[in-house]
Structure formats: structure tokens, C-alpha cells
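Allow me, if you will, to draw on your knowledge of protein folds for a short while. I have a record of one protein: its chain in single-letter code and its fold written as C-alpha cells. Could you please explain, in whatever detail you think fit, how the C-alpha cells follow from the sequence? The record follows directly beneath this note:
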Amino acid sequence: MGLLHKAMGDAVEEGLIPINPVPRLSRRVRRVLGMRSNSDPLTVEEVKRFVATVPAPYRDLYIVWFRTGWRPSEILALRFDWLDDHRQTAMLRLGRIARWGGVEAPPKTGPREVDCSYDPDIFAAFQRRRRVTLASGRRDYVFTDRDGNPLSQEQLHKRIWLPTLRRCLPRARPVQHPGHVHHARALGWRGSGLGRAGVRGA
């Protein structure tokens, strides 16, 4: 019941259904979820360590994610056609839910244009991704696997996010995906060089 409730909750969050049809969770499960929502966010130094540790093919994804704080479904649905290099804006038209077979629908807050000009490293990451995709022949999704297919949120969480956290953090932390941590824009880390392995001071 807990997994089904969570899946329905995700569907509500992504705007696929208006309300969660599954009964509320038990008090114990709600308490656990409450602990997750109040998890201790990463510090600036921990974010730098994470970006330096994460496998290279996923580094640009996390550079953008930490600097924007977008929802997982939004960043994984991002297309190159939605990027305006001249104005440095990104149009978030859809969200992608892997557990529903890659279903895509408008984001919870609706389609929106995001000004990314506050941090040049965001579009620098997009440009690196564009160069990588030229070799694969797939030029639609910005962040993909080696075959050019969209990434799965669940696989990314299990195979990249959690193992990297274990390697780079000195103690166990109940940290979720980057959308649940204090991202660079929220903390005002403009020009911090956060996304590079040889970081400048934040």
C-alpha cells in the first residue's frame, strides 16, 4: 500500500491526476516520510565533493541540478530544442516519470521559461552535453545514457546518487535527490565554480 500511495502521490505532483485515490499511510510510515522531508541538506563543501566524485558521464547533470533545483522529472525530460543559448533560458515544457513507462506530462507548476543567465556554468554544461550527443546521433534529450536514451530517475537514484553519496560523505545522511537539497541558486552561490572538480571558493 505504501508504494502504491507514493506512486499515486507522484502522479498528483506531476499533474497526471487531481487527487491521490489511495488511502493515507499509517502513522509510522508518515513519520518516516516526515523525517525524509526534514533531512539535513548538503553543505557547500559536500556538494563540491559530490560533483568531484560523481562519475564523469553524469557530472554535467548534477552541475545543472544543483544549480537549478529542478524536479527530477523536469531535468530528465529536458530537450535541446527547449534551450535558448543566446538568451540563456530553458523552457520546461514536460516532466518525465520513468516508473510509469516514461510517461510525460506538463510539470506540476505548468510549463515555464527559466532564466539561467545568473550562472554561466549552467549553459556551459548544456554545451558540453550537446557536443557529446553529436557523436551519438541522438540530439533530443539533454541528459541520456550511453545509447542516447532518456535516463531513468529510479536507476539514477540507485546507481549514481546513493553510491556517490556513500563515497564522498563522511557519515550517513538521509539526503534525497538534488531537488531536496539546498541548491546553488537558493544559496546565492553565483560564480562559485561549484560545478568543476577544481572548484573556486564559494
Q: What stands out?
A: The CA atoms of residues 67 and 95 lie 18 Å apart.
